[in-house]
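Illustration 12: Probable chemoreceptor glutamine deamidase CheD.
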Amino acid sequence: MKVYGGESSAGASSKPERIKVGIAEYDVTKNGAVLTTSGLGSCIGVAIHDETAPVSGLVHVMLPSAEEMDDDNPAKFADTGVETLIDELEAAGGDRANMIAKIAGGSDMLDFSESGSGIGQRNVEQVKATLDTYDIPLVGEDVGGDHGRSLRFEGTSGDLIVKSANKDAQTL
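Figure caption equivalent — predicted structure in token form:
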């Protein structure tokens, strides 16, 4: 888990830095880097952007709640991962009052339960509850279904590009 920031050394015509966020990881950028993650099945990618700072961050969470497991990696869980990302965005100069969130993932690709409340849906519910606790509006989502997703989060604009196996890429 790294936090990136500072002034970009890239010129106006250069492509922004690209940072890969792995499973149970997060990253924050202050220099307009592009944050990417892939392999979102039941996992959720949570992208938070503060246009006024400008800072952006992305976390790739796997499970709904840290209370369910004994693990010291906060990025692994929807509740502590979102909380940690918000804290890191504030430490990088962001203001919670100006933050917006977009999410993608939470599919039930491998869920065979008949209850309809598989891990993907529980992840979505926990992410939304945690964002609500911090008063961060959810302004875009592509969740559920039975397909995987990959994300590209544009740190400068706050655009979240979602690529799915079964449909065209969309921008949230």
